[in-house]
Design brief:
245 residues; alpha/beta; Rossmann fold; 8-stranded mixed beta sheet; 8 strands; 19% strand; hydrolase activity; Carboxymethylenebutenolidase homolog; AB_hydrolase_fold; cytoplasm
Length: 245
């Protein structure tokens, strides 16, 4: 399990032994991992990685799961060649590190990926999901990008956009009850602000007993009591995408 005193215990899952079914491609100025379903489709999902970057096996596992469920899934390198965080890095330097990787400045990359999905993959309806850092990026995109249909933010860092709640598209927020970097008070406040300001469909769901990173946690850490919530989180994510794409 992660050391819960760390500022961002996303390293749950860093050693997931998974090779991936898709392929790496060059998309404009960035690299991306793409996995396509067996049947042709015009529906796609952009997967936004956490601090461990676009090559984390756990994130690719989720991208492949989306493809198995009928979506073109693409996980671009939103750090644009900058190094992803490593579990061996000094956590004392984390705040300085993350300042150079702003979840609110993903627009240029998203535009390039949208063009690729439309021109090269025939995608017409496109959604987005993201984990932790990527979950914050999802909230940012749901506030401003008119070309995305829906989003799922998984334990997205609320404090990045705590004063912005006028979502353009239906958005599903997934949180763990025991997430020590996203306190439940922040989640409650998010719900209140959405209720006051949001004119589109949204849902905020808290999963009992779950810590940060639970939906894409590595297999060894799936405790018997956690497994139903991990599976429920993944199923809820797919159901939301199915509803709005």
């Amino acid at each position: 399990m992660a050391n819960e005193s760390r500022p961002c215990p996303c390293d749950i899952g860093d050693r997931f032994d998974y090779g991936g079914r898709g392929q790496e491609v060059q998309v404009g100025h960035i690299k991306a991992y793409v996995c396509k379903p067996s049947a042709s489709t015009d529906k796609a999902v952009i997967v936004i990685h956490d601090i461990f970057g676009w090559q984390l096996p756990n994130t690719r596992y989720i991208a492949d799961m989306l493809a198995t469920n009928g979506y073109i899934a693409i996980c671009p390198d939103f750090f644009v060649g900058q190094e992803a965080w490593k579990p061996s890095n000094d956590w004392a330097s984390f705040n300085d590190w993350v300042k150079t990787r702003d979840a609110g400045k993903t627009d240029k990359e998203v535009d390039v990926v949208l063009k690729y999905l439309k021109d090269q993959c025939g995608a017409k309806e496109i959604g987005v999901i993201g984990f932790c850092w990527g979950g914050a990026a999802v909230q940012h995109l749901m506030l401003k990008n008119p070309h995305l249909k829906t989003g799922v933010s998984l334990y997205g860092v609320i404090s990045h956009f705590e004063d912005k709640h006028s979502l353009l598209h239906p958005t599903f927020f997934i949180f763990g009850e025991k997430d020590n970097i996203i306190p439940l008070e922040q989640v409650t406040l998010l719900e209140q602000k959405l209720k006051q300001n949001c004119k589109v469909d949204y849902e905020v769901k808290i999963y009992p007993g779950q810590t940060h990173g639970f939906v894409h946690r590595k297999r060894e850490d799936i405790n018997p009591q956690d497994k139903p919530y991990i599976e429920e989180g993944r199923k809820d994510m797919i159901n939301w995408l199915n509803k709005y794409l």
